Amino acid sequence: MNKSILWMLTLSIILVACSSSIEENDAGIRVDSSLGNLDYNIEEEAWSPQLASVFEDESMQPMMEAYEIAIHNEELIQQMPCYCGCESQGHEHNQDCFVYEVEGNIATLDQMGFG
After folding, report:
1. How far apart are CA 67 and CA 88, in angstroms?
2. In whole angstroms, what is the distance from residue 18 CA to residue 8 CA?
3. How far apart are CA 7 and CA 19, in angstroms?
4. What is the pLDDT of residues 29-58, one digit of tens each?
5. pTM for this structure?
6. How many other C-beta atoms are found inside a 10 Å radius of the C-beta of residue 10?
7. Helix, strand, coil percentages for the chain (3-state, nearest 5)
8. CA 45 – CA 67 distance, rounded (Å)
9. Can you list the positions of beta strands (E) in 1-115?
10. Cβ(110)–Cβ(99) below 8 Å
11. Cα 41 to Cα 29, 34, 81, 87, distances in angstroms
12. Where are the domains of the chain?
């Protein structure tokens, strides 16, 4: 009886360890179901479910690419001044219009890049 419990416990641990919160949706966009509304997993290159659903629309592909460029090319984008008048909101450069903050491998996006 103890052997069967040990096997069940071992199998459960293996299944949990092998499961992933990263999937690809029907539009081919990588989705990380563990993320919040406006988050992007930099290491896995995966969007939050909410953002992935927005980017499924083909007309939103250029916007998704703009966010990816801003996220993955921080030093370059930070050298580009912002011309939308958002300095009053504390923005110093173009990066601020797209990325609110980065903690570890998670970028929280700023909504300004959508408009």
Report:
1. 22
2. 15
3. 18
4. 999 999 999 999 999 999 999 999 999 999
5. 0.77
6. 10
7. 50, 15, 35
8. 11
9. 22-24, 30-32, 39-41, 46-47, 99-103, 106-109
10. yes
11. 12, 10, 26, 27
12. 22-114
